[in-house]
Amino acid sequence: MPTSWTQTGIYSLANIIYGAPFASKQFNTEGNGRPIIRIRDLKDQQFATYTTEVHPKGYLLHPGDIVVGMDGEFRPYIWGNDEAWLNQRVCVFENKRPNGKAFLYFTIKPLLFAIEQTQVATTVIHIGKKILMLLKSCSLIQNYWMLSM
């Protein structure tokens, strides 16, 4: 690693916001309430499920947010649809600097792919807070922070 680079934990670059456990009994496909984003909705960025619930720990996903599924495939997506509730097992990487979203996206993409390729499970692989806390990023942090201020 070049001497001008710094290795840092992912939490120094981003806040990670986890989806809330919305009650599935309040889900519907008729369009009542707000859309709720589940892992299966990420790739196509289409709404299939809605909820009338307003969860106290709920996060409203916004266009442009970096969103990642936490089961099966750990691929980051830049959300391009309307606002929607973030369901459990889905998280948002919220950049700590307003002008560094592309930097964050391209930093986490290979890290998440590496985790996906090395996880072993008897059913579906999962990623959680403990694993995310171990993520390290090598980057030219000094220049990144100056450019994004």
Quaternary structure state of the chains depicted: single chain
Tally of DSSP β-strands: 11
Structural class: alpha+beta
Strand content: 25-35%
Share in helix: 10-25%
Mean model confidence by pLDDT? 79
Shape: elongated
Number of helices: 3
Strand order of the largest sheet: 3-5-4-9-6
Q: How far apart, in Å, are the first and last alpha carbons?
A: 25 Å
Poorly predicted regions are 138-149
Gyration radius (Cα, Å) is 16 Å
The main β sheet shows up as: 5 strands, mixed
What is the H/E string?
EEEEEEEEEEHHEH
Task: Give an overview in words.
The chain is an alpha+beta fold. It has three helices and eleven strands. The strands form three sheets. A five-stranded mixed sheet has the order 3-5-4-9-6, with no helix packed on it. It has a four-stranded antiparallel sheet with strand order 2-10-7-8, covered by helices on one side. A hairpin with a 6-residue loop joins strand 7 (66-69) and strand 8 (76-78). The longest helix is centred in the C-terminal third of the chain and has 18 residues, at 101-118. The protein is elongated.
Write the layout of secondary structure elements.
Layout: E1 6-9, E2 14-18, E3 27-28, E4 34-37, E5 50-51, E6 60-61, E7 66-69, E8 76-78, E9 84-86, E10 90-95, H1 101-118, H2 129-134, E11 136-139, H3 141-148
Parallel strand pairs: 4-9
Antiparallel strand pairs: 1-11, 2-10, 3-5, 4-5, 6-9, 7-8, 7-10
